[in-house]
């Protein structure tokens, strides 16, 4: 078996998709991808997902903005993402590591009000006490949004922007805590008919 070695580079990335439950899905997906300022990341869209790579701050900033732009269509939008840091498979995005830490979209999207339901799972690979890391980061998440137990994941209910900011903080804390390869999966749902009656945006 060939063992791939992970580089020392701190390049982060996300592979994500948006699925708007609407006949206008093409406009919603493409519109959201275009509306976000992606100049500090390497971004590539195909028929399955979009991949963004660069500094972790910008990967979260761009995915948060794209989701917020899609969700503000008012249509039921599902979002799936896998975030990863610590084991890059290619190097095209590495040029973007020279960027500064100033997010380009945060100011623009921070006023978007969008209640969402989400689930996330954190995988601190390459560290010892991985369950301790997971439990302490679930605890940390309670500062930002409503947190509840789910099988294979932790449920989050709240404003989309607060949830993305919480996810970014938890991811960073896991990396800074010594996880040499960190993966996080996120599922999010906006404007679901299942939320009717509980959604402040109605
Ligand atoms: C973020 C994101 N990136 C790519 C796709 C895949 N995709 C499905 S339909 C469509 C528009 C027509 O080309 C695209 C790009 C997605 N769903 N969400």
Describe this structure in words.
This protein has 202 residues and is of the alpha+beta class. The protein has a single domain (12-88, 110-195), classed as Alpha-Beta Plaits. The protein contains five helices and eight strands. It has helices at 25-35, 56-71, 106-109, 130-141, 160-176, and strands at residues 12-20, 42-45, 50-54, 77-85, 115-125, 146-150, 153-159, 181-190. The chain is globular. The mean pLDDT is 91. Ligand VIB is lined by residues 16-19, 26, 29-30, 45, 47-50. GO terms for molecular function: thiamine binding.
Tally of contiguous helical segments: 5
Spatial strand order of the main sheet: 2-3-1-4-8-5-7-6
Low-confidence stretches: none
Bound molecules: the ligand Cc1ncc(C[n+]2csc(CCO)c2C)c(N)n1
Provide mean pLDDT, rounded. 91
Topology, number of strands: 8
Domain Thiamin/hydroxymethyl pyrimidine-binding YkoF putative: 11-90, 116-194
GO molecular function: thiamine binding
Binding site for thiamine: 18, 50
InterPro entries: HMP/thiamine-bd, MTH1187/YkoF-like, Thiamin/HMP-bd_put_YkoF
């Amino acid at each position: 078996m060939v063992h791939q070695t992970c580089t020392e580079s701190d390049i982060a990335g996300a592979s994500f998709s948006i699925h708007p439950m609407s006949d206008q899905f093409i406009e919603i997906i493409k519109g959201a991808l275009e509306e976000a300022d992606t100049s500090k990341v390497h971004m590539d869209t195909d028929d399955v997902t979009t991949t963004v790579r660069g500094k972790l701050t910008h990967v979260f900033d761009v995915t948060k903005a794209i989701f917020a732009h899609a969700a503000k269509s008012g249509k039921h939008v599902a979002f799936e993402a896998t975030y990863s840091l610590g084991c890059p498979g290619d190097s095209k995005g590495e040029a973007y590591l020279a960027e500064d830490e100033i997010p380009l979209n945060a100011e623009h999207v921070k006023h978007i009000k969008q209640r969402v339901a989400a689930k996330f799972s954190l995988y601190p690979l390459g560290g010892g006490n991985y369950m301790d890391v997971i439990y302490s980061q679930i605890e940390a998440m309670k500062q930002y949004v409503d947190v509840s137990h789910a099988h294979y994941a932790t449920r989050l209910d709240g404003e989309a922007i607060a949830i993305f900011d919480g996810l970014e903080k938890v991811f960073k804390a896991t990396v800074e805590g010594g996880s040499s390869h960190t993966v996080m999966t996120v599922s999010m749902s906006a404007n679901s008919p299942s939320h009717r009656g509980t959604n402040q945006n109605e």
